[in-house]
Specification:
about 140 residues; alpha+beta; 2 helices; about 20% helix
Length: about 140
């Protein structure tokens, strides 16, 4: 083994090379960071757009985990709001006129598609088409 340092390409983060180093890296990384990495890999594998890359008025297909689900009226109409997180950024998903939807609960993974809107500086997806991910794959 040589003591000469290896030079990485600019702009790329250095990844641990050995098995022991990878294990130490996983042990020293927070649970939240590990979950974010897993969600980002899942998003990429399913061919969906990363939420952080979504822009206003863009039609997208995104995937992630629901962090929160709340009932919050909008203009006097019931609205079910959920925060979807894919490891890069949060997205508010809103179903207008709904008080509840079977299967929409915190911790559930889903794929949602529709047109992104910006509201108060946050990305929002109103009345999206959605597909609940199987519970066995979570």
């Amino acid at each position: 083994m040589s003591a000469v340092p290896r030079f990485e390409k600019p702009g790329k983060a250095a990844k641990p090379s050995g098995r022991f180093r990878r294990m130490l890296d996983r042990l020293s990384t927070s649970q939240e960071d590990l979950e974010s990495e897993e969600l980002q890999e899942d998003s990429q594998a399913s061919g969906c757009t990363r939420i952080s890359e979504c822009t206003d008025r863009q039609i997208v297909k995104v995937t992630g985990t629901l962090r929160t689900v709340t009932l919050r009226p909008r203009a006097g109409v019931p609205a079910l709001e959920a925060e979807l997180f894919d490891g890069t950024a949060p997205l508010d998903v809103v179903w207008l006129g709904r008080r509840s939807i079977a299967g929409i609960e915190p911790g559930r993974k889903l794929i949602a598609s529709g047109r992104i809107a910006m509201s108060h500086g946050r990305r929002v997806l109103f009345n999206p088409k959605y597909e609940l991910r199987p519970l066995g794959k979570e």
